[in-house]
Design a protein that fits this description.
elongated, mainly beta, 0% helix, five-stranded antiparallel β-sheet
Length: 131
């Protein structure tokens, strides 16, 4: 389980999208898909993302893959404070990676529009092994 919490800011003149990704090194192992913000200017509104990942396959080269489903909450998104199921498309395994070597699990967020008012701060990030 990957949990990230923080604050999101967005500009009012457009509705930028935020894409949350869990990375294995430089490989996208899971993606939320693009989440649209509302048409209100927001400054560091709290967000909470929880993703349950399961290992779908393991192996060398690009054969290891995760499948993940989670929930995202933030009043800055078009859904308001209602939880959004992520990914926003049909769940599918992420891009393959090599599970026979050491990998760095990382968290990444992309924003569709470059503007000084669009931003994200991560205050808490945790990875749990569920058994």
């Amino acid at each position: 389980r990957v949990t990230a919490r923080g604050g999101i800011s967005n500009v009012v003149t457009a509705t930028p999208t935020f894409t949350f990704q869990i990375m294995m090194g430089s490989i996208v192992a899971w993606s939320s898909g693009a989440i649209t913000t509302n048409a209100t200017a927001n400054t560091l509104l709290p967000f909470s993302l929880v993703v349950d990942l399961r290992v779908d396959t393991i192996g060398a080269s690009t054969t290891a893959k995760f499948l993940g489903i989670g929930s995202l909450m933030c009043a800055a998104f078009a859904s308001g404070s209602t939880a959004i199921n992520v990914p926003v498309a049909s769940p599918a395994v992420g891009t393959g990676f090599d599970s026979t070597i050491a990998n760095i699990l990382d968290f990444w967020v992309g924003i569709s529009a470059s503007n000084g008012a669009n931003g994200i701060q991560v205050y808490d990030y945790s990875v749990e092994l569920l058994q």
